[in-house]
TrEMBL record:
This is Methylated-DNA--[protein]-cysteine S-methyltransferase. Keywords: DNA damage. Residues 14-84 form the Methylguanine DNA methyltransferase ribonuclease-like domain. Pfam families: DNA_binding_1, Methyltransf_1N. InterPro entries: MethylDNA_cys_MeTrfase_DNA-bd, MethylDNA_cys_MeTrfase_DNAb, MethylG_MeTrfase_N, MGMT_N_sf, WH-like_DNA-bd_sf. Residues 89-170 form the Methylated-DNA-[protein]-cysteine S-methyltransferase DNA binding domain. It comes from Streptomyces rameus. NCBIfam families: ogt.
Length: 176
């Protein structure tokens, strides 16, 4: 009788200290040790994945930590990590389109919808897809703003959106 070894993918997490607070990264590790990121959540974000302390493993996230540190010090403008967010085909198409919004710039919900061929009457579906983005910062939904220039909804909080856009040079720092 033949026996089969079942190799399972392990779900793990880590925390990355940042100027925004502790970022929660989750991912899956293959039996060969390859990491695929499934989420990056900001502090206070609703809908962040629940994690168990015993599933924390910082080692597979070394490259993600390196790239995030470089981003926050201004030495990186794009991420080169393996991503696999859970979402519908439409959501994944919206999230993928974010890759075309360059660092230091913004786009509007309407412009993003037009690029995706979404009818004007259905722009809200783009907003809902952005709100469900599980890879904040890595898939830069913070770069999408209202047609009037307003900083509308952001799952990580509008204050974090403002900080990120200021950090990237898309907004001027505000003086208090």
């Amino acid at each position: 009788m033949a026996t089969h070894t079942v190799r399972t993918v392990r779900t793990i997490h880590t925390v990355h200290a940042s100027p925004l607070g502790d970022l929660l990264l989750t991912g899956s590790v293959s039996p060969a040790g390859a990491l695929t990121l499934t989420s990056l959540s900001l502090p206070g974000q609703g809908g962040a994945p629940a994690v168990r302390a015993e599933d924390r493993d910082d080692r597979p996230f070394a490259e993600a930590h390196r790239q995030l540190a470089a981003y926050f010090t201004g030495r990186r403008t794009r991420f080169d990590l393996t991503l696999s967010p859970a979402g519908s085909p439409f959501q994944r198409a919206v999230w993928q389109a974010l890759e075309d919004v360059p660092h230091g710039t913004t786009t509007t919900y309407g412009e993003l919808a037009a690029r995706l061929g979404v009818p004007r009457a259905e722009i809200r579906s783009v907003g809902r897809a952005l709100g469900a983005n599980p890879l904040l910062l890595l898939r830069p939904c913070h770069r999408v703003i209202g047609a009037d220039g307003s900083l509308r909804g952001y799952a990580g909080g509008v204050e974090h959106k403002q900080w990120l856009l200021t950090h990237e040079g898309a907004l001027q720092p505000t003086l208090l």
